[in-house]
Amino acid sequence: MAGMPFSTIATRTAGLALVLALWVPGLSAQTTFKLAKNKYTPQQDVELGREAAAEARQQYPVITDERITRYLTAIGDRLVEAAPASLKDPVYEYSFTPVNLKEINAFALPGGPMFVNRGMFDAAASEGEVAGVMAHELAHVLLRHGTANATRAQNPWLQLGQMAGAIGGAVVGGAAGSAIATSSQFGLGTLLLKYSRDFEKQADLLGAQIMARAGYDPRALARMFETIAREAGASGGPQWLSSHPDPGNRTQYITREAELLTVATPADERGFPTAKAAFASLPAPRSMAETAKARSTEGRGTRTSVGTPGLPVPPPSSQYRTIAGGGVFEVDVPTNWTVLTSSTSVKVVPENGYGELRGESVFSHGVEFGIARATTRDLQRATDEWLNAVARQNPELRAAGPQRVVRLSNRTAISTPLVNPSPLGGQERVSVFTTFLSDGTLFYYLTIAPDRDADALDEAFRRIGASIHLTEAR
Ligand SMILES: [Zn+2]
User: Fold this and answer.
1) How many Å lie between the centroid of ligand 1 and the Cα of residue 244?
2) What does 69-124 look like in DSSP terms, one character per residue?
3) What's the gap in Å between 423 CA and the centre of ligand 1?
């Protein structure tokens, strides 16, 4: 297939009207907040965050030094205590985990788990600056921005059990993140924990209010952002900024908000130098890249090529290994093929089967698994609708024979043989198999090979197809 791969289809969901929380600055009153539209319950936030946090704890170099964990938890508890009661759902499970990573970063998962990198402490000039970032993260939790993002996304992968791995994958990032994405999800976390500028501004303003009530000068938050901006371009800054984009004029509006707030009895910040000394006694912090490399097993979601399209494709190994896609399926694939994950699909391709050719992204050999939203429970109609959408991206795609009813993982499925001009010249054969998942989402498995290589790959395609096991029923 040339140009847009099939995987783009399912991402083209309708742009819904977004109901964003509004901040309403009064004449002299502090900003008030309204929760954004959210189709999840607070309890679901908690379950999701708990699962993703478990994954993050496995992947991250978590700091267990009690001087540091106690110090961080004391700041966190103080902030939670100061947060508006109306936003503190009793089901939330707050936790504050220090991580021995050098990037200036912190993140909070839905329902409460928060992770703070050592790099954030190292860059901070005062406890107030660390507390500022934590208050900002806590605000994302209380305003439920993670699941509000999921609500907006309208992506059929985003069911609760599947989201956790996505978030786990995203927070870990890089190759390790992709490995998580391969094993448990399709890497949607970037979507869920990448906040809009609106959400950022809300988190800043609510964070400023929480700080003041906890006894910290909210202007410390603005100073920390200035430090982060300065460090952008160095190792750590951009990472935080990529999920927390600068809404612009941060210092001004935080300062303005600070002027409307009364800082409570100042927090005792004497623990800060002690905590810094405790950090200094730890092993040197690692970078995310080092961590990801150490953890990396497979699944290079960011890869844009597997070999060089146009060069000969080696025969599939006779050895197979099992891979999993989300909580959705397991399948056996040749050990010499490479797994590529995207937000809605998994491709498994032989060497030279995927990459850039004459400036175009081509997928000439291999298999793809994915999902697409269906508007009907009629498999024939759902299949045809999806094929029509695919054909719009691949206008020369043609039927190569009649559709047949077949079995896929013990379910009724439809097989559709197609032909299309191969990006390598001549024709390519495309076979598509579609069936429903239990929630009515369409699942597809497709195979692609140029005519000249089709026979050589036929056996592998059949073996892969026969091994598909849909595991999504819970
Ligand atoms: Zn943020």
Assistant:
1) 4
2) HHHHHHHHHHHHHHS-GGG--TT---EEEEE-B-SS-EEE-TTSEEEEEHHHHHH-
3) 43
